[in-house]
Design goal:
The chain is an alpha+beta fold. It has one helix and seven strands; from the N terminus they run αβββββββ. The protein has one helix spanning 3-18, and strands at residues 52-55, 60-63, 72-76, 81-84, 87-89, 95-99, 103-106. The strands form two sheets. Strands 3-2-7-6-5 form a five-stranded antiparallel beta sheet, with no helix packed on it.
Length: 121
């Protein structure tokens, strides 16, 4: 190796070693896509072993979080049976039921108002 190449490698190594290391933010601090303010994730099934059947009242989107701004992963047509496990009240005062393995459905889109069991995290 020529002297300029060795010097360039030494300078680059020194620069990289002096640079601050990137620190990853905790998962709960990373904002979800599409303006969805939900950071909690899914309620653990061992703490929420409930299940009851409700029915879609009109179109019932299933979302990644309990807010209308969260991405819809599917939509159940009117009359479809939906098994709900537990519910939360979001920061707007709206209740949403969790559909295990799928996401969250707004209780206003369910004929019987969703789950009667509060979610435990």
């Amino acid at each position: 190796m020529s002297a300029p190449t060795v010097a360039a490698r030494i300078a680059l190594t020194a620069l990289l070693l002096a640079a601050p290391a990137a620190v990853a933010a905790p998962a709960e601090a990373v904002a979800p896509a599409a303006g969805c303010p939900w950071y909690q994730g899914a309620p653990p099934s061992n703490l929420n072993p409930y299940g009851s059947t409700d029915y879609a009242a009109g179109s019932a989107p299933i979302r990644v979080g309990p807010y209308g701004a969260c991405t819809a992963v599917s939509t159940e047509p009117s009359g479809t049976a939906i098994t709900v496990n537990c519910y939360i009240t979001n920061s707007y005062g709206n209740t949403w039921s969790y559909v295990r393995g799928s996401g969250w459905v707004y209780d206003g889109n369910l004929r019987n108002g969703g789950s009667t069991h509060p979610c435990r995290f």
